[in-house]
Amino acid sequence: MRTRLHKKLALLPLTLLLACGAGAQAGGPAAQAGGSGAGGQVVVNVPWVKMNKGQRIDYMMRVMLPKMRAEFHAFDPKRFARVDCATCHGPGVEDGSFALPNPKLPKLLEPDLFAKHRAATPEVTKFMLEHVEPDVAEILGVPGFDPETRKGLSCYNCHPREIEPGKPVPPPAEHH
Q1: Are strands 161-164 and 108-109 parallel, antiparallel or unpaired?
Q2: What residues form DSSP beta bridges with 109?
Q3: Taking a C-beta distance cutoff of 8 angstroms, is the pair 143, 137 a contact?
Q4: What residues pair up with 146 in beta bridges, in sequence order?
């Protein structure tokens, strides 16, 4: 059975072609994807924050997903044998919202700087902090987390956060 997302993705090449025209603007993260994609898809070279939803879906499918799938699989091929949109976006994939943070991902306790996670899963925590977080920021062309200003893309863009166990707090400003 086809989901709404599959139907939307099937129309994506035509939507992008009509919405974007044949011209491309200079700069932005989409430049990494090249000029034109397979099937006549037009990759528009605009910053992530200025992309519309269709452009973002195309960019995620053609740039983010292949890169992060390879990265997760190289880290732990058994645990991350399947990496797809739902790995990060969870239930937001089925409803088409791609909402983040994903309530299905582990909640991160902020005040202890992930001490619980560093103790329980040190390799995963190190991988997420040293590879996933900075690589996602780079792919999206957005600033990574700055501990001094506490701004930029951080773990909390994807993971729910808690100030105290059992007390979630609102997510940070969006970059996705």
Answers
A1: parallel
A2: 162
A3: yes
A4: 151
**Distance between CA atoms of 79 and 36, rounded to whole angstroms?**
34
The angle at the Cα of 86, spanning 121 to 61, to the nearest 5 degrees, equals: 115
How many CB atoms sit inside 10 A of residue 54's CB? 20
User: Can you give the pLDDT at residue 170?
Assistant: 60
The helix, strand and coil proportions of the chain, stated in percent and rounded to the nearest 5, come to: 50, 10, 45
Distance CA 148, CA 126 (A): 20
Distance CA 17, CA 117 (A): 44
pLDDT tens readout for residues 11-55: 333 333 333 332 333 334 544 444 444 433 445 578 888 999 999
Q: Edge-to-edge, what's the strand order for the sheet holding 161-164?
A: 108-109, 161-164, 167-168
Tokens at residue 135, please? 């690589």
Closest CA to 103 of 148, 143, 151, 160: 160
* Cβ atoms 41, 12 nearer than 8 A: yes
**Does pTM surpass 0.85?**
no
Q: Which two tokens stand for residue 151?
A: 């701004």
Task: Please count the other Cβ atoms lying within 10 Å of the Cβ belonging to residue 169.
Answer: 12
Give me the pLDDT at residue 168, please: 61
Residue given tokens 């609102």 in the structure block:
170
- HSE at residue 98, side-chain half, CA atoms within 13 A, is 14
**Rg (Cα) of the chain, in Å, rounded?**
17
